[in-house]
């Protein structure tokens, strides 16, 4: 029971102390007169005659306990200010304007106070102004040396007095700071001679003021005696949305000391109407006056409070002036007439229009200039510099496209200037280091043609003039033959231009042309007489191009030739990604079904583990990239140019003819994995599997497959072998690879996607990619 009584007493004492500090009733004067609080400081304030040379030095201050008011100030004066966004409630007029223009306009200046401090710390570290009035609670610091030595820290009591030993009580309340020194010097001089004296103000008193009216946080505030009206406005959060920014009054003893216009402060930096606060001052914020909004091409669109008679020029000036893109002829004004009708008016931006008076509720819309070019013709598309040209009478297409140089794009010159593209192959193929052939300057030399660059080619057969028909405001397209206009100077194609016309030049990629007119760059590499990047003639086939380049070398292995096509690669990649997305949806659906049908926790864990395994397989598969390889179906024994198929070439095609390899690879789940074995004509699949140690226990023996050197796949589930009725007895060729997949958790959902042999065939995933992502 005693413990509970002690606890209750402690809580009561804490509550009393907290209440006293919050109200600030315990004054600094009480601290000065109570001997239990400041007896030590009083004893140190005695004046003693100086003795010897030591008296010429400034005296050492006696030990001094900080006055009690430092710890007994109201809590609001001690907690450091904390920035906190204070939202302003949206006014009815703001909602009205938002409904008219489709966006919210702020009330000008109110956001200045939106991050005002939640408390107000005294302004203690600024110089005291000469006209500062000393009052109860101020600390007066007196330093005397000469005939006497003293370092005094005195506080003005509630009677407005300070006590100086051997001098007596001095009434200093009401004195200006500039008169305080002479007043104290005179008093001390009545008892002492030959001394020097300095007087300063130490910690200043706090005063209580009131903020009332339409303030964001009205109430009483304890602030520093150095505080001004502006300081108090920030402390109280400024006016609310319904409060005036232009008629804020400071009242003292029922009289208006000053009327402060925040707009003068914000727009012109004028703080001349600011005033120092005194105890008991009242800051009154009246309701907001007449308002007008301005929006559009103005620097500071907002809602502004009007004062006296405000004309259009003044409102535009308050809003920061017109923007650079504002139309300077007139503005539109929406007005409320007689508090019932809404009308629209135009104010000209001349001297008379700018002098027109605004009314409460006006909405001024500043119109931007039109984006139309009155005298321009625009050239755009596959050109060196898309540009606007000044139109003149009789202007034609060749005036803006005088020659072919205008059609060479900047991208061409950037590629031309790349210094890492200067290694030329034997016949003229140009190769860079760090980039693929398709990113380089391509070409052939000598009898095989002219060096070309892989940049978008001009469509010489089609360009267009876009023109607005002012009779019905429809856009007309006027096509013309660019080659005839620019190269042949054909007057019928050299169209006359009009102001506002847009001339567009297309590349062959943007506007598809016939196959015969397309430029096709093909890469030929490996065991060919001449390798490099070459331009295929219109309709030229793969066999014809290889023959034109001199044919094959004696070491060429046609069965292992790799033929890839960019359009095929994109299609394969799209098919792969669509398959993975479909499987992911099925995995999630299957996981949810399995979890719901599980009978116990063990079943749920098994379903979760299965879903995790399936998802991991799909994540691996997402790393696979299609190659775009097309199986040429060349016989294994083929070695002649005639065996190359007559495939019509496309831009970006690539043929790589390897040398005849001497090994056969065995990969995957075998005991001697990832090894290559010398090729022997007599060996079959089973022989190579035996050399690799045979399948491991983790191998999926039912899904072993052979990846042929030509890119085709034969699996163990095929109905027939190559030269034998059984898969194990199939004879392999140099460069072939036997792949033994890992046995995975193949539910019906993942069964097809984990059939790596079909993935290689249908989606162009290479064996190297499967090895890289770790599925074999």
From TrEMBL:
Signal peptide: 1-22
Soluble ligand binding domain sequence ranges: 209-253, 292-336, 522-557, 683-714
Superkingdom per UniProt: Bacteria
Listed Pfam families: Poly_export (PF02563), SLBB (PF10531)
Disordered: annotated span: 32-67, 586-614
Amino acid composition bias (Polar residues), ranges on this chain: 32-58
InterPro entries recorded: Poly_export, Poly_export_N, Soluble_ligand-bd
GO MF entries: polysaccharide transmembrane transporter activity
Residue spans crossing the bilayer: none
Keywords attached to this entry: Signal
Domain named Polysaccharide export protein N-terminal: residues: 127-201
PANTHER family: POLYSACCHARIDE EXPORT PROTEIN GFCE-RELATED (PTHR33619:SF3)
Protein name: Polysaccharide export protein
